[in-house]
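Colleagues,

Please find the record for the two-part complex below.
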Amino acid sequence: MTYFIDRRPNAKHKSAVNRQRFLERYRKHIKRSVEEAVNRRSITDMERGEKISIPAKDISEPVFQHGPGGARNIVSPGNKEFVAGDKIRRPSGQGGGSGAGEGGASNQGEGTDEFAFTLSREEFLEFVFDGLELPHLQRKPLKSLEEVKMVRAGLSRDGVPSRISITRSMREAYARRIAMRAPIKRALKEAQEALEAEERKDSVLRNPTRIIELQAEIERLEKRIAGVPFIDTYDLRYHQLSAQPQPSNQAVMFCVMDVSGSMTQNHKDIAKRFFLLLYLFLEKHYEKVELVFVRHHTAAREVSEEEFFYSRETGGTIVSSALNLVNTIIEKRYPVGQWNLYVAQASDGDNWDDDSNICRDLLIKQLMPQLQYYAYVEITPHDHQSLWHEYESVVKQFPERFAMRQIVEAGDIYPVFRELFKRRLSQSS
Amino acid sequence: MSATRKRKPIATGSDWNFSMLERFDAELARLADEYRLDSYPNQIEVITTEQMMDAYASVGMPVGYHHWSFGKQFLAVEGAYKRGQMGLAYELVINSDPCIAYLMEENTLMMQVLVMAHACYGHNSFFKGNYLFRTWTDASSIVDYLVFARKYIAQCEERHGVQAVEQLLDACHALQNYGVDRYKRPSPISAEEESKRQDEREAYLQTQVNMLWRTIPESPAGISPLPGSLHSDDDPLGLHSGGLYPSEPQENLLYFIEKNAPLLAPWQREIVRIVRKLAQYFYPQRQTQVMNEGWACFWHYTLMNRLYDDGNVDEGLMLEFLQSHAAVINQPAFDSPHFSGINPYALGFAIFMDIKRICEAPTDEDREWFPDIAGTPWRETLEFAMRNFKDESFIQQFLSPKVMRDHKLFLVVDDDQVETLEVAAIHNEQGYRQVREALATQYALSVREPNIQVVEAAIRGDRSLTLHHVQDSRRPLGRTVYPVIRHLQQLWGFPVHLISMEEGRVTRRFHWPVEDENSVS
């Protein structure tokens, strides 16, 4: 007796719990690998899983087994030239060396040093933001700067020659030609019939004058038909364009970071998480996100991502140099109408005293009116310095669009981010 | 295959549907009946690739409790599969009543028919007929028991935390190969009774343990002091005269733990029991790999050929089958890069085919080697061989000189005290018996796994547990011994000593927690 059951519709992922248990158990190993991956990868390259290797000995499930040594008998297939009593040099490499060491005794492959598997994208991000509780990222309508885009909107009778719609114009011409020729053709037909009737008459009864008249009439009508123009200005149709407001679907994110001597690699790693988070968020909202990396000590420079995070420089700190540079770049490359502009700044709070109020003015007067959002994180366990206090007055002016936070360790990043996210939510609803 | 074709093939091509499978199954059932194959009813489940990987990860158990090691297994299978390093097995079959067999939806029609012949009639009849399965497993209750185990362990996780349960399972898994009774028949498991009697048993077990560990020592009546066990000078009051506990060495470590570990909570004993019961369930499979696969291959080969002879399948399907069959029973030579030990499918298939040959067309050699079976009806002889042996004794009984010649088997002695390996015997007149003996031994679990037994629990002393490893041919324990006795110590709760002995001499001592003495040796 046999029953057939189609189990295919059943739930997949029966092993999901076990998989989670495994990841949980080797959290430390996996986290280390993920951290290495984050440091190695570019910010724009976080949206994929990661191959993780764990030393096999760390995850083995031990059972009692025989170690190498002692005497053992091994039966193997495929003898070609051996006869009883032959001595064979021991193959180099202990353990399973004879190739038949395992014999039929074990079918479990052993001896691989690494246990490798792949984290899915979600699992990877979960480890990246371990403890940060990555919010549920969704595409939400953001308030965007309006940009006008010309779109085709029907046809019109006048326009420039480059926008002529050939098909439509030809169709109009064809209709006009039919319409204009029809009455002439009808008259022509009548005249021809009359002429034929006249010519069919007996030669005695024919009216020669009438024939000449009709022939002249036919000639005149044929001329008129030929005279109907193939195309007329009257036929021409032009594509019409109308101006439509278009939300911009591209954004640029400026990463601004202080690279003066006081910023350690640890500070930079925290900053990287922060930039990454904002990037992931923006990527959900815009079709295209560009990144601009601006680093500064006493002078600011636009650099590659690699250089941004990993090269070291020393020197003092003048924040306004970076803000000026951002402003210049916006003017040159990212016209406000077409781009949503975001700036994320990370610093340890150091700045030349005289410079902080310059920064404030620069922000209030020049930058903030153009920006969607400005997020500032100060990575320091110490007291605030002048820059923080000056920025506080910026917050007062732009409470909607300027956020600042102090961060001591990676776990503090999320609240800053949540602030941005929450605000947007309430605004859009 | 020259039989007259009288019928049209049931189906051709590589696509299949359920009605085709049903018609093929009916035909296979008819043939199996003709061959008097006795099997459980079949429950054939069609599953996806991913479900197959799930099934793999839980060692084929249709329901399993949760544990990270199954997740690891899943990741390993998934990784290897995605990298294209391995194909999934085409089938998986579970020793249960009804016998559950999985078919993957990606399989071709030929493959589905082959799997049905192999699993649903081959393995199935083996499960039902072989004495080990009959004695040690209860096919009718295993699925219920698995459900019970899963529920119980989930409850424990809720009550005592995932981590506590996980650690306990880790320890039990490390010892699960030592959780089987090798010689006496276990009582059949029944999920219903298990849960019904569970509370009762918890209470009962605890009283047993309490009896054993009560603090006021009292010489139990009936146990006479062992002669000379301890000098009366050391123990004038005879407090230690109760003899050793246990009175005989115990080979079922998990059973001993479940009944005797002093500090385990009742739920912990229950989990030890679950792991032990499942290990017991899988025990016959570990001992009948060659026979089980050989039997299934023999029958898929026989049945597929019958389908063809009767005109139920066409040449195209048959060619596809033969190619697949040849791959399954391929045995690379020891020096081939593809060699990974002896292929149990190949060896088992060869032996069963050879038994049939010996029955039908015995040579003089066969008459000399197998006077009992040469010329007998093959079907009865095959049934006898399937029912009454395990790999070790099956090879010892039925491996014929012809199969040894065909496989060119040879025996190498690897002794670490000798500089070279020595070829002790090959497939010739002088070597047959020695090769066969050695191959049979190679499949004996008692040789494959170190022989370890509990010899003493110091119930009147420091409560330490002493085990003996009976060493053979100077083969030492592998490096995993420390992690394993650490797990054992966690279960036992007090120090654990493991002593390797060979011919009455102590060769090595292992202790957990590690003692100083050890670092010296």
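The two ends of chain B are 68 Å apart (CA to CA).

Comments are welcome before we finalize the supplementary table.
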